[in-house]
Amino acid sequence: MGSVAGIEPINRQLPPIESVQAVLFDVDGTLADSDPLHYVAFRDMLSEMGYNDGIPITEDFFSAFISGKHNSEIGVFLFPDWDQQRRDQWLDDKEALFRRLAAEHLEPVAGLLRLTEWVKKKGFRRAAVTNAPRSNAVQMIASVGLTDFFEHLVIGSECERAKPFPDPYLKALEHFGVSAENAFAFEDSPAGLGAAVAAGLPVVGITTGNPGPTLVAAGAAFLIKDYDDAALWSKLEKEAVTSSL
């Protein structure tokens, strides 16, 4: 399975559980509500350097132009007149600040360990698929206690194209030798959701950092607020739906 552009989105329903072979997870905002820490890091460093005349960026600005995007794209957007080396150094410094904040404040999304135990019990293959730098992703996964859970880690910058292109998800599926018809993903951002949908995957949207309608518009099969959400377990355990999807 290669890095193929233009794959048609499939039906937005999750596959029958008995046909599932793999479950794929985004990291930032999906395993832990990390966006607030990224926002603080960007806000403080941009203010310190006098960006936008020193007026701090808003959460709406962060959600619209930064959240879920790859650092190379963010760097060009924020600093169009800088050379790439200068952008890369600034973003490296920002990620170092984020890791310091994460070490103190990062917590798993509610119900995450309940879900991951269910996934392990079912024997599904499992990968983390993220645009985060590898050092960030490894730390976040460790911080939520899932170092031994994931069998594979796909980093967007290590693929031909990062999210919002489907390449990272296609690479995860190829690694396991699993078809998109026999897998599904969890995502929290429109860019990540678009990448998974373009790879042919049905996606559960988690509303940790982005509004539900935005995730539905990006292709979410349905929405959950966290991993204890009854809407999720009614699907996974094939129980009668008791909450509005």
TrEMBL record:
**InterPro entries noted in UniProt:** Beta-PGM-like, HAD-like_sf, HAD-SF_hydro_IA, HAD_2, HAD_sf, PGP-like_dom2
Name the Gene Ontology molecular function terms of this record: catalytic activity; metal ion binding
Q: List required co-factors.
A: Mg(2+)
**Pfam families to which the protein is assigned, alphabetical:** HAD_2 (PF13419)
Q: Does Transferase appear among the keywords?
A: no
For this UniProt record, the keywords arranged alphabetically read as follows: Carbohydrate metabolism, Magnesium, Metal-binding
The superkingdom of the source organism is Eukaryota
Q: Does the keyword Transmembrane apply?
A: no
Q: What is this protein called?
A: Uncharacterized protein
Which species is this record about?
Ceratodon purpureus (Fire moss)
